[in-house]
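Please check this chain.
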Amino acid sequence: MRRTFIGIAACAVALCSPLLPTATAAPTGEAGVFASAEPLAPVATPPSAVDSERFFYSTTTVGDAPTQASAAVYFPPGQPPAGGWPVLAWAHGTIGLGDQCAYSVAGPAEVGRDWAYLDSWLGQGYAIVAADYAGLGTDGEHPYLNGMVEAHNVVDAVRAATSHYDTLSRRWAVVGQSQGGGAAVFTARYATELGGPGLDYRGAVATGTPAYIEDALQLGGPGMPPIALGGDTTAYVLYILAGLRTSYPDLDIDSYLTDAGRAWVDRAESSCIGPFAEQLVAEHVVLGDVLARPISSLPDSHALLHNYLGLPESGYDRPLFLGQGLFDIDVVTPETLRFAATLTAAREPVTVRTYPTDHSGTVNMSLRDSIPFMQGLFA
């Protein structure tokens, strides 16, 4: 079973004060502009979708720098309702960092799971806009798990699609899994602000959401015991290091890596998750051999990592659904539940459901609750 995120620790850690990133919209006229479209490959098309396309649009990446990204749009069968199809933005899980891995190029890493999930939403009468995230399938590096970049990419893809396809409504919500669960949560926090008056944002569904990864990463350093981690888990850490290198060039992340570590992070930037994880297992790569200095020795390391990938703990203006598998070891389940409890205690508009299954199993098992939740958002 292909995993889609990281579970590098199972211990609880102390809650640190949140430092929320600031949402900054791109200058008017630059972001969310539709550029062009091309046919979508069959491998990247859900079975029940019709008239689907791959399209390119303007968005932003690290430092609010302008860039072009790609996305897919999937239309449901039948005639659109008055006002157009309501839109779900699909925030996908980890597929890798190479351009050839992009969701609109190669399709999902978990084909059966994702197509069953997206077909369920298409069958409910939603059109789907699936952003690739900046640097996947287009120029530049993908800043893996950079939450604000992902939020911009998701919102701008919806803006571009709804402005170009006249059968799409401006009413929209976001759904995401694993890496995409984190992206969906970031999008939920900033969607109204980033989307502006031209879009009608309704809410979010996130499953298998990684939380407080900034805490777990503090454990990384040279000489770590060679704990038997899955190849996927090791790959996720290398992807995070690559993302930090892209997002913070002044930090000189390479100086925190051994020679072997630099070589593996370089490979990570052009790899897809499946073959990369297999290669890491075959070559017995362990994280203690990758890191030359502790991650905790980064300048103000916890605050830096929190601002990079830490989930916002307040400020949600629309309903948010969190679904979590109790046997999920791809994320640190106690930490995801701590995040849910934190939102609940703060009286944020969150609905939390747990399921007796693992990371991937939660995706489709959660539909029994997330479909009626979504219907309520669009009622």
About this structure: The longest helix spans residues 147-164.
